[in-house]
Design goal:
Elements: H1 5-27, E1 41-50, E2 53-57, E3 69-72, E4 77-82, E5 90-93, E6 102-111, E7 118-127, E8 134-143, E9 155-162, E10 169-172, E11 177-184, E12 191-194, E13 206-211, E14 214-224, E15 234-236, E16 239-240, E17 250-259, E18 266-274, E19 280-286, E20 289-290, E21 297-306, E22 321-331, E23 336-345, E24 350-353, E25 358-361, E26 366-375, E27 383-387, E28 394-397, E29 401-402, E30 411-420, E31 430-439, E32 449-458, E33 464-470, E34 473-475, E35 477-483, E36 488-496, E37 502-509, E38 516-521, E39 524-526, E40 529-534, E41 543-551, E42 560-569, E43 576-586, E44 589-593, E45 600-604, E46 609-618, E47 624-631, E48 638-643, E49 646-648, E50 650-653, E51 658-666, E52 678-686, E53 693-702, E54 710-713, E55 717-720, E56 725-733, E57 740-745, E58 753-756, E59 762-765, E60 770-779, E61 788-797, E62 803-812, H2 816-826, H3 828-859, H4 865-881
Parallel strand pairs: 2-4, 16-23, 25-32, 35-43, 45-53, 55-62
Antiparallel strand pairs: 1-2, 1-13, 3-12, 4-11, 5-10, 5-13, 6-9, 6-12, 6-13, 7-8, 7-11, 8-9, 14-15, 14-17, 17-21, 18-19, 18-22, 20-21, 22-23, 24-26, 26-30, 27-29, 27-31, 28-30, 31-32, 33-34, 33-36, 36-41, 37-40, 37-42, 38-39, 38-41, 42-43, 44-46, 46-51, 47-50, 47-52, 48-49, 48-51, 52-53, ...
Amino acid sequence: MCMPAVRWSTLLLTTLLLAPFLLGILLADTAHAGAPDTPATNIDLFLWSESGEGKLHTWTTGGHGDSETVTIPSGSSLFFALHQPLRTDLPVESYNPNPPEIGFRAYVYVSTQLFTDSHLTLRVRDGTSPTGGTVIASGDTPVSGKLGNPDSDNERRVDLYWEDDFGPDYIFDSGHYVVLELENDDSDDDVTLGLDTGEGGETPSRLITRTNPIRDITVLTEAFNLETSDDDDRQATDRFEPNLPAELARAFFSGTALNAFGAYDVASIRVQVDDPDGEELFDSELAPTDRGDGSGTVEFDDITWNYNDPEQPGAQQTGSGAYTVRVSAVDQQANAYWVELQVEMDEYGVYLWTDERQQSVAVGGSVSYQLTVRNSGDSSDSFDLQPSDTSANWTVEPQSWSSGSLAPGGTETVTFTVSVADSTEMVGRYATVSILATSQNSPTSQKKTFDLETKTVVGAEFMVGLYFEEGTQHVTTTEVDAVAGNWNDFALRVANLGQATDSIDLSATSMLLDWDVEFEYDGDRDSGITINGLPRQGSGDHVANVTVWVRPAEGGDDDTSSIQLKGTSQGNATKTSTATLEVSRTFGLSLNVAGGGSTIYANLQPGGTQTVHLSLYSAVEGDRDVQLDVVDLPSGWSAVYKDGGETVTQVTISEDESMPLDLLVTAGNSATYQEGGYPVVAVAEDLHESTARGRQELTFNIALQDDLFQVTASKYRAALEPGGSYEFTLELHNPLNADDTYQLQAPSVPKGWQVSFPDGNSIPVGASRSGDATVRITASDEVRHGDSEKILVTITSSVTAHRVEKTLTLEVEQGFGGRLTTTLGDLWYVFVLLGLVMAVGAAMYYRSEEWDDEEWEDEDEADDSAHASAAESSGDDWDDWD
């Protein structure tokens, strides 16, 4: 059945009336929000060239490339692109929104040879690479000839108008390039372009775009956490107490800023604070820190407002109320982009402190805590102090206390006493008493309190004992001999004689100048060490066996040194014990690197040999037969001594004789680099008197082969469905002669995608070996068929810090049924609206049929009464329409 033309006209008219509404719904999903709080501004993208590649940047200074002019041959194009891809989406606006809309403006300094002319066409492209891409705006300009290179007289302003279907706004996607193409479309003459002189130079060629490159600013406000004993502890808050002491009245600001052009374009971060009346109190600006992950994000911290600084009265808070904080990211061209937030100075506040939060008390004794309460709010107030409950063995007095009325900043002091029961069972126990200060005048719904925690410990009797063993006797003084120039070891006993587990600090004093003393215990060796967690007597081994190393000086006139060894209890620093080591210096054998040279040798190759020149000296009376040895050699290594070129294992040396020796140390063929090197000890020992012994510690370092590691994969591109995932396998090739661990990261993951590392993001790989790392990439259910995303994965060596970047490409492919379902689901509102349109058209069609019937009835008014009755019925219908 064919619908009459009038019916089609009615349906078409209705459709046209609803078309704008339909189009608005269809385009709603493509809208993008700009950066908050700050309008777009004009940004200069200066042209420069490096190694023949045209680039764009925002620096206002020149000299960044390697040329101030480039030539555009006739019939050719040059491309200038951002020197790094966009770090996030970049929305741009029309340079001039008045019709005809100018998308961009460019200033170029161009010329041809004298007496010739040419013509340039400029195009702005949205490119996924530095050359090419979709043309979104274009313009052109004639070029005149001159003698020499172009200068300021050769400036050409070029307005680039939006291409069809583009403008008045546009968004460059993250990872894309803003590309400016200059085409010399003249067939005869080359064009010379001046560039890279900065905004104050002769030829600052540049592309101007209107945008806000700061796409995100995050701000964290913090204050001191005054209820902890850590003076540097902070807590996140937007509420501050106005009348804290000056040293505590701090507001800390930190956060991040994301710049689409890259972190380099954020020159500074500025923080300003205005009081409730709009008067500026604080203004601070500092250079941020590049996060270093290539995301375009900078970080800032340590911007601190001391709002009660007596040396800066103009920066002090002005009372309770809402204060406005403006945090601005300032780019290279001094444009500021900001976010604003509010912090509150509270009307009521309380602060409670004491000089000593922890004290010790004797059994049956008591200690006093002197507390000071301060009105840190902005209105007069009184405060109640209430100690927490304790067990029956403890008493706190007074049980409660109230201050008088305190003006803002006013203080009052009170003393609380904590007492402990008279029982030895209380030794080592403690009580934590919290004093709660409460504001009387603050609203019940926002009651201001401060909780000060004190700790009272019942002190055990601490005691330390130091002694030497001589047979079955324990003595505190002993006489020993020690060879000059050598380390000599002696046994010392350290006992915990107290009533509780203790840690004991050991130190040595009173030794002669240039005499060295060290302690060794449980693998720790130093001039001062701590024996940790030594049990009390009866609860374990309360005696520690410590080695005391003494190296007498080879010079000086005194041969005897009285060395005081001291042990100090950490439980009670007043409890100490001493022992005396009376050391008489003897001159036996000494083995040293000749000439006082270095004992550390570097860059030894596997299988290589290092020669060490040694000097053996004897202070022992008579001729001595000396055994030469090397201890602690790593497996696979070897060492020999040479005397005059001959291999020796023993030598004979006379009193006061110095003998040169060469020690040849050969590294194992499979030796690998090791942090800190390989320590060995050269030893010379009298065959008939073991106390006459010389030692020289040496360290050999295997050369590190600092080669770049390689990362390979069987494939770098894969397809997956919405909600699916794919695992890439990266093979890590370690070329070093050292074990390495590689750190994997995905620094910037697009929205709707997830990156994980099933094997962990730290992959150990042995020297000269290979290992595998798995990268799993998962797409959300919201990605669409035909979507494609590139994921950057970085791999960093823990040894060399070298970094390799790999790009993994994912393409979304969906079956026909899934695509059809998605499409129908997305367009459900279109079918609903079309149904409404057809319903309206059908209603109008049937109404028109009734109009036709009425016309026929009017023509038959002369018919019989039945027809007259029908006519009356028709008239009633018309009445219904009225």
